[in-house]
Amino acid sequence: MTTTAQHYEHHLAPLYVWMAGGATAALQAGAAEIEAMKLPVAAGEVVVDLGAGFGMHAIPLARQGALVTAIDSSAALLQTLQELGSGLPVRVIIDDLLSFQDHVQQAPKAILCMGDTITHLAEPSMVDELITKAYETLVPGGVFVLSFRDYSVPLTEDQRFIPVRNDDTRLLTCFLDYETKTVLVHDIVHERTPQGWQLKVSHYRKLRLPPDDLVDRMKSTGFLVRREAGPRGMTRLIATKA
Ligand SMILES: C[S@@+](CC[C@H](N)C(=O)[O-])C[C@H]1O[C@@H](n2cnc3c(N)ncnc32)[C@H](O)[C@@H]1O
Fold first, then answer.
1. What is the pTM of this model?
2. 30 neighbors 176 (Cβ within 8 angstroms)
3. Which residues contact 139 (CB under 8 A, 6 or more apart)?
4. Cα of 136 to ligand 1 centre, how many Å?
5. 180 contacts 164 by C-beta, under 8 angstroms
6. 51 lines ligand 1 (CB under 6 A)
7. Residues 123 and 227 in one domain
């Protein structure tokens, strides 16, 4: 079984910006999402982005003047973030997102975990751990934002093949293979080479997290939770530390 970190290092990280539609379009989409959420973050306030990737949300927040700490286990994606966010107040940290408290010197106003990152955690107990740590770390009135895919209701038969992106040089299709509490995600890449089309396949595991369960866990920790539809079919939870 490929680990999530291996999957990103060898398979997904080199394609990630392309998969997201290219840097300019992806950063515009990230900025639109930040705008839509109306986060209570003013210039000069601290934000932590967990699983920040190439900075789809971290960079727009930093452009608004937030002091962003971007944490990710992928050195390659953080390198891209640094290039795209050059000159902005973003600090990048290569680490596991559950260790984020080690890198926070000042209590943040917002902690983000966007784009289906939370489903990458290995166990549901780690989700509980993250919610508790986010609550402990935020300033009063701060927000913890999650956006993720609901895999709790399985797609069946041909629905499990999901075209992600294609152009003249590359096609990316995702295949979902459901297990009891997890889903195996196979990223199937066809790339045009001088020798013809080349196939590369790699897979990793994601958690099937029912949104209602997450809302309940957040509420029982003390958060007030707003649930809304996020982009690309994701569920978004905006949890405020009362
Ligand atoms: C689906 S991408 C989302 C990236 C970004 N948040 C976005 O919305 O574009 C998931 C990201 O989480 C990172 N990641 C996955 N598991 C992680 C972990 N345990 N600790 C830190 N980063 C992790 C991956 O390297 C990847 O950059």
1. 0.96
2. no
3. 107, 108, 109, 241
4. 22
5. no
6. yes
7. yes
Query: Which residues are within 8 A (CB) of 156 and not within 5 positions of it... i.e. 6 or more apart?
Result: none
Task: Indicate if 213 and 196 belong to the same structural domain.
Answer: no
Ligand 1 neighbour 230 (Cβ under 6 A): no
- Which token pair is 220? 């029982």
Amino acid at 206: K
| Averages of pLDDT over each 10 residues, the chain, 242 residues | 87 94 97 96 98 98 98 97 98 98 97 98 97 98 98 97 96 97 97 97 97 98 97 96 94
Q: What is the whole-number distance in angstroms between the Cα of residue 182 and the centre of ligand 1?
A: 17
Query: Which residue among 61, 72, 112 is best mutated to probe the pocket of ligand 1, counting the most ligand atoms within 8 A of its Cβ?
Result: 72
Distance from residue 177's CA to the centre of ligand 1 (Å)? 20
Domain that holds residue 193: 157-206
The CATH number covering residue 173 comes to 3.10.450.700
Instruction: State whether the beta carbon of 187 lies less than 6 angstroms from ligand 1.
Output: no
Q: What does each C-alpha distance from 146 to 80, 88, 150, 220 come to in angstroms?
A: 23, 24, 12, 16
CATH code, 16: 3.40.50.150
Number of folded domains that form the chain = 2
Integer-rounded Cα radius of gyration of the chain: 18
pLDDT reported for residue 2: 78
Distance CA 85, CA 228 (A): 28
3-state secondary structure of 178: strand
For tokens 């195996």, the residue is 184
Q: Are 100 and 71 in contact (CB under 8 A)?
A: yes
